[in-house]
Specification:
The chain contains 5 helices and no strands. It is an all-alpha fold.
Length: 148
């Protein structure tokens, strides 16, 4: 059954693979965020720009060869990369806006030390869900389509 889902070209299977990639890169994003945010010269916002960029780059490779493996590619790699980064940059703006809102609201609230420390992680996940939905809809139409 797992093998069938991995090889299937159905929208449901493709979205499931996209969500698996999204979960993987969200872990990478959150891990890098927490590694970088307390370094000198960094804060949660600056660290997130770096962590999101690394996650987006990893996401391209995983989506190209795992999620949308069944799509015949007539498009040049450079064109596909430009489309991918354009779509995901817009999704990233949504993702970072939601992340920033969650972190900002957490900073304004009188939270316990635990919850204040967890707010960036919550921001990554909520922003990630918003960004993932946007990115899937536009990636399947503009980046990994069969038109080439």
């Amino acid at each position: 059954m797992l093998n069938r889902g991995v090889r299937s070209s159905s929208k449901r299977a493709t979205f499931f693979r996209f969500a698996c990639v999204g979960s993987t890169i969200a872990l990478l994003d959150a891990g890098l965020l927490y590694l970088l945010k307390d370094l000198p010269g960094f804060n949660a916002y600056i660290a997130r720009v770096f962590s999101y960029t690394a996650a987006m780059s990893t996401g391209y490779v995983l989506n190209r060869y795992f999620t949308f493996h069944h799509i015949e590619r007539g498009r040049a790699l450079v064109d596909e990369l430009l489309r991918f980064f354009s779509v995901h940059a817009l999704g990233g703006v949504l993702n970072l806006a939601v992340f920033s809102l969650v972190v900002f609201l957490g900073e304004q609230a009188e939270l316990t030390r635990f919850w204040a420390g967890v707010m960036p992680l919550i921001g990554v996940w909520v922003g990630g869900l918003v960004g993932m939905t946007f990115n899937f809809l536009f990636s399947s139409k503009l980046v990994f389509d069969e038109r080439g």
